[in-house]
Amino acid sequence: MCRVGLIGGNSVEYVDKLIDIWNSGNCAVLIDFQIPIKTAVVIYFNENVSFNSVVMPDENPQNH
User: pLDDT 10s per residue in the chain (64 long)?
Assistant: First the structure.
């Protein structure tokens, strides 16, 4: 098992990535995309994140 950093906004893609992480037997380290990048880096290092995944927030949700 490894810790996988997941950063992004609330979206279907974010939840899909989260479930993929869990189904692969790994632990998700959820990081809010709105926090300062320096804070996100500190969290990654403090939590010993092995892999990371970025889900970009949808800027035009009305298009769905």
Answer: 888 888 888 888 888 889 999 999 999 888 888 889 899 888 888 888 887 666 655 554 444 4
pTM: 0.71
Contacts 24+ apart (CB under 8 A), 54-59: 54/7, 54/8, 55/6, 55/7, 55/8, 55/9, 55/11, 55/13, 55/14, 55/17, 56/8, 56/9, 57/8, 57/9, 57/10, 57/11, 57/33, 58/9, 58/11
CB 9 within 8 A of CB 54: no
